[in-house]
Amino acid sequence: MAKNFDVVVIGGGPGGYIAAIRAAQLGFNTACIDEWTKGGKPAPGGTCTNVGCIPSKALLQSSENYEHASKHFADHGIKVSGLEVDIAKMLARKDQVVKQNNDGILFLFKKNKVAFFHGRGSFVKTSAEGTEVKVGDETLVAKHVIIATGSNARALPGTPFDEKNILSNDGALSIANIPKKLGLIGSGVIGLEMGSVWRRLGAEVTVLEALPTFLGAVDEQIAKEAKKAFDKQGLKIELGVKVGEIKNGNTVTVNYTNAKGEAQVLEVDKLIVSIGRVPNTIGLNAEAVGLKLDERGAIVVDDECRTNLPNVWAVGDVVRGPMLAHKAEEEGVAVAERIAGQHGHVNFNTIPWVIYTSPEIAWVGQTEQQLKAAGVKYKAGTFPFMANGRARALGDTTGMVKFLAHAETDEILGVHIVGPMASELVSEAVVAMEFRASSEDIARICHAHPSLSEATKEAALAVDKRSLNF
C-alpha cells in the first residue's frame, strides 16, 4: 500500500537532508530517501559527508598536525622524538568523524519527524495530482518531490576507477599506506586537498593540469601567491599538459606531453583523478516520466529550481551552478520555502568558495580578471599576513587579503584571501556583500586585536591607500 506525503526528497546529501528538515519545520509531512550505506547501516549525508567534504577535512587536519609536529614545533621550543604516523588510526578517526555526521543526520530526521527510507528512489509516474516514487518494496506518493541526488566523480575516458591504483575522491580518502609517489590529474579543489594530505605525510606528489594557468577560477594574484607556497612545500605542479595513455599494473604509468610539447612519463604508486564531477541521475528513471536533462546530464531547472514536471524540483550538484555543499543547502531551504508559498532566495553572487589547503584559499564575488573583462571600473586593496600580529604569533604569515571595490560607489565587488583560516575570514566578506556594503564600511568597523580579521580591515583600508600597518 502506498504511503502519502506532502514532500518526498530523493537524496540525503547536504541539499536533500536540509530540504527535508526545512520542509518538516514548515509543517509538511515529509520523507527523505537515501541509499548510502556504511558498515551495513544507513549513512545519510551524501558524497559530502561520506567521501567528500567531511572526511577530507578530517585527514587534512590530521596531516597538518603531523607536519606541525615534524617541521614547526621546534620553532616553539617543543622537542619531538620518535614521531611516527599510524595511518590505520588516522583513517579510523576519519571514519569516526563521518559516522558522527551520519548519526547526526538520522537524529535530526527523528527530531523533525522526517520519515527516512533507505534505498534508491526512482520515479514511477508523475502528474499534477501526485508523484509516485519507488524505494525498495515501498511506494511513496508525494504532492511535491525534491530531487537532490548529487554528483559522481568524472573518470578519464578509457581509464575507469578501480579505487586501488586509480582513485576517485572515494579511494583517495582510504589509501592504507603512504605512497612513495603519488600522481594527481587535475589541480582543482579535490586534487590540491588530497595532494596536500599525502605530501605532508611523506609522499612525493606530482600534479598534472591540462589548463595553462593555475586555479583559473581564482583571482590571478591570489592564485600566484598560492602556487608559490605550494612550490615551496614541494608540491610539484605541471601546467598545460596533455595526458595520453595510462597503464595500470603494479604501478601506474602516465604518458603525457608537457607544456613545451615534450613527451614525458610519470610512474606512480597511486593516481588520483580529479577532473570534475558529473550530475548523478543513475536509477532515477528520469526518461520514464519525461524529466528533462541538459547536454551535461544535469536536470534542467528554472531560476527557482522547478523542473519541467509539475511539482517536481531539483537542487544541488544535479542542477546548474557551482557544485558546492553550501549552495545545495541554500537551494534546499529555498525550495522548501517556495513550496510553502514563501519567497526562498539564493544569491549566486555571494556564494563563498574555499580550498582547504595550507595556505587556505577562499573568495567571494568577482575576480580582478572578471572585472577587467567586463569593463567595470574598480579599486583594489591588499594586505599581507606577514604584517599581521596574530599571523606572526601563529607562525603562519603566508598570503594576503585582497579587496575589490567599485571605483565610483565603493561597493565591495569581491574579496579574495590566501592564508591562515581563510575559510573563516571570508564569511565577513559574504555578509558585507549581502548588505551591499562598501570597503569604507569594513574599514570603519572595529576589529579585535590581535586577530587575523584585522587583515580584512587593513585590506579594506588599502582600497583607499590608507592601510595603517603596512
TrEMBL record:
One GO term under biological process is:
2-oxoglutarate metabolic process
Q: Record's InterPro entries?
A: Class-I_Pyr_Nuc-Dis_Oxidored, FAD/NAD-bd_sf, FAD/NAD-binding_dom, FAD/NAD-linked_Rdtase_dimer_sf, Lipoamide_DH, Pyr_nuc-diS_OxRdtase, Pyr_nucl-diS_OxRdtase_dimer
Domain Pyridine nucleotide-disulphide oxidoreductase dimerisation, residue spans: 351-460
- Localization (cell): Cytoplasm
Cofactor: how and how many bound: Binds 1 FAD per subunit.
Return the GO cellular component terms, semicolon-separated: cytoplasm
Q: What does UniProt list as catalytic?
A: 449 (proton acceptor)
Q: Which domain of life is it from?
A: Bacteria
Pfam families documented for this protein: Pyr_redox_2, Pyr_redox_dim
Family statement drawn from the similarity comment of this UniProt entry: Belongs to the class-I pyridine nucleotide-disulfide oxidoreductase family.
This chain's protein is named Dihydrolipoyl dehydrogenase
Query: What is the primary gene name for this protein?
Result: lpdA
